[in-house]
Amino acid sequence: MAHGGVPLTNVAYQGLAGAFSEAAAAALFPGASLLPRRTFAEVFAALEADEVDAAVVPVENTHAGSVADVYDLLRQHDSAKIVAELILRVSHSLLAVPGTRLEDVKAARSHPQALAQVEEFLREHRIQPEVAFDTAGAAAEIAEGGDPAIAAVASRRAAGRYGLDVLAEAIETSRDNFTRFFALAKNGDREIAERIPVALRSGPTKTSLVYKTANLPGALVRSLQPFATAWLQLSKIESRPSRAAPWDYVFYLDFEGDPAVWPSKEALSLMRTCCEWQQILGTYPAATKVIEPD
Q1: Residues with catalytic function
Q2: Most buried of 116, 135, 147, 164, CB within 10 angstroms?
Q3: 224 and 280 share a domain?
Q4: Of the candidates 47, 1, 84, the residue with the CA atom closest to the CA atom of residue 283
Q5: pTM of the full predicted structure?
Q6: Looking at the structure, do residues 80 and 181 belong to the same domain, yes or no?
């Protein structure tokens, strides 16, 4: 039991222990039981099957852009609703087996995006990049292999998980590397949402949705006009293949507002007149601060 007699929450995330997704899940649900899953599809399946109470998934990075698989899964799993968002700073470290010196390292393994983000550091130290499935997985491989010539690019959290030394911290080229995460609960369960710290759910109301415009000239412009008329701020719009037919697209949109109340309710009603369908992915408090990795 958690403090106050509230049962501990089981939370699924993609990756291995020490992943940035685990850090995000720990921040959103302090004291929860964090359960790794191999793929994003398995995370959504666990939530749908009531194997977990909540899920935490990355949706967007300031350098790599949107996580397409997660947005597709949100559309496919209508019961998985967004109840919160979190912005996590992504800070990479060079990890190696205990006793290794920086000059001993000849190669570094990590996810391709992580390797790209630390390219300058690796080049400066003449370290050869090697691709791995993910950051935490690379750390686990290094710990198991025991070769001081091969390091991993991962989080400090991963170093603690796998008993590795941190040879260098904050080795990313740019400090403006942030990942946005969604906390998901089945059918938007408010009891689960209220287990998130108040400090992480005190921002203005925000809504994410996906929709398909009617096949008419100007339909996209007409679908957005109601938000401008209602003076509602859009914070994201992006097209994705619908996967229903070739060259068929849907649009993901974030706006500041609650679809249950005016003027958002009226804007969405007008929007439907030029859409084939519309799906609300969740209404939640917008993130107002950046969480630093532990």
Answers
A1: 179, 181
A2: 135
A3: yes
A4: 84
A5: 0.89
A6: yes
